[in-house]
Amino acid sequence: MNFVSENLGVNEQGHLTIGGVDVLTLKEKYGTPLYVMDEDMIRTHLRTYRDALNTYYNGNGLAQFASKAFCTKYMCSIVAEEGLGLDVVSGGELYTALSAQFPADKICFHGNNKTKDELTFAIGHDVGTIVVDNIYELEQIDIIAAKLGKVQNVIFRIKPGIDAHTHDFIMTGQIDSKFGFALETGEALSAVEAVKDKKNICYKGLHCHIGSQIFDVDPFRETAKVMMAFIKEIKDSLDLDTEELDLGGGFGIRYVESDDPISYDLYIKAVSEEVKAQAEALDISVPKILMEPGRSIVAPAGITVYEVGCVKEIPNIRTYVSVDGGMADNPRYIMYGAEYSAVLANKADKTSDCTYTVAGKCCESGDILIENAKLPKVEVGDTLCVLATGAYNYSMASNYNRIPRPAVVMVSGGQDKLVVKRETYEDVIKNDL
Ligand code: LLP
Question: Is 63 helix (H, G, I), strand (E, B) or coil?
Fold first, then answer.
């Protein structure tokens, strides 16, 4: 059997396995819908990034997991154990990380509108780096750091002008973005200059992120080139050294057979060559390289397990298979028209020769998980798994229709472990007065 993620298999009973564990056993034990994540695969991905950065930048690099992809205390502790950093974008993600004893100096705090409370929380807890998005924030950081008697390390979020979503990327495409400072207008240079008279801020470097689910190396290489040129400009016109260059995340993964992701190792190699070549050509030193992969670390490691509740054939149009979850646990189809693959866990050895529309249980016509899903003949009670749901599913889940969020289970070395409890109806109403 060929599945989109290599950690999936079929056992002697014809059941789907994840990390060697029978999915039907997990269904029996924890119920559905259920997020299942393969911890061993997550660790392998974390190590791939860590080792590639060590290899290509002689240890002068750090991958920071973008926790927006999947943020729980347990995940934060895995990242800490593997020695990576963490990218957080809100007080809530930061709180989760600190609750898991994640080392604050390896946390990088993002966001285009961090509140004063969030900044105070972050600076007060000695967060390693704040990524400055706008000039108002720069002022705020200086004021808050002064009040707390601290000097805060910052890097500046730059729009490098690379549109990674078109095949022939266009240099000015991304100026229209709510994130960061534009290069073309001179805004970015003035922002970095403004740091010079801020006593409680220490300039460390630059950040950029060109998009997500990208399969091509070239936009990343091009971005590295643009950023190195800006580092040179900062040196020449402001006499400031740039120690760190954060190149963001965005590496694509396989959701469906036709997706063709690049190897992360190759990507890091290509970008490292570009950064080093530019450093030499421009006569500047090679900065420490930071990266923020999210999806590529967790997405392939996760599946969502559902039970089929009804099969509805509309002659000559389509057959709907409705499952006991949907857009509340995976809003990516309704938000982006995202594509996924599915498997019937109890018929994983059967040929997928039927076509279905997999629908959720929310009161919303657009609550679809997959259109044209190829599956064996589906019957009520079957266990349907949507694959590669480890990123931006649990983290984007809601209580729409007052549906409690599913539990999250990790599997490792053939054992399972509950890492997030299933919400109850009581949880859903707990803040109602
Ligand atoms: N760094 C920054 C500054 C980002 O904005 C993002 C993603 C990442 C890193 C991680 O990117 P990744 O490696 O995961 O592609 N909810 C959408 C994805 C939004 C991504 C936003 N930023 C989805 O479900 O596809």
Answer: strand
Closest ligand 1 atom number to CA of residue 296: 13
| Strand intervals (E) in 115-200 | 129-132, 152-159, 181-182
Q: What is the pLDDT of residues 192-237, one digit of tens each?
A: 999 999 999 999 999 999 988 999 899 999 999 999 999 999 999 9
The tokens of 2 are what?
């060929």
The catalytically annotated residue of 76, 108, 363, 385 is 363
What are 62-106's pLDDT values in tens digits?
999 999 999 999 999 999 999 999 999 999 999 999 999 999 999
Segment 104-146, tens digit of pLDDT: 999 999 999 999 999 999 999 999 999 999 999 999 999 999 9
Residue with CA nearest ligand 1 atom 1: 248
Mutation choice for ligand 1 from 87, 90, 212, CB with most ligand atoms inside 8 A: 212
Test site for ligand 1: of 295, 298, 330, 369, most ligand atoms within 8 A of the Cβ? 295
Give the residue among 207, 202, 205, 181 at the shortest CA–CA distance from 123: 202
Domains of the chain, earliest start first: 8-38+299-429 (2.40.37.10), 110-293 (3.20.20.10)
Contact partners, residue 286, CB within 8 Å, separation at least 6: 57, 60, 275, 276, 279
> 288 C-alpha to center of ligand 1: Å?
22
Joined together, the tokens standing for residue 15 give: 């059941």
SS3 132: strand
Predicted TM-score (pTM) of the model is 0.96
Identify the helix (H) or strand (E) that includes residue 88. Answer: strand 85-88
CB 118 within 8 A of CB 89: no
Consecutive H or E run containing 416? strand 415-420
First to last CA, the chain: 52
pLDDT of residue 172: 41
Quickly tell me which residue has 């601290």 as its tokens: 150
Nearest CA to ligand 1 atom 19: 212
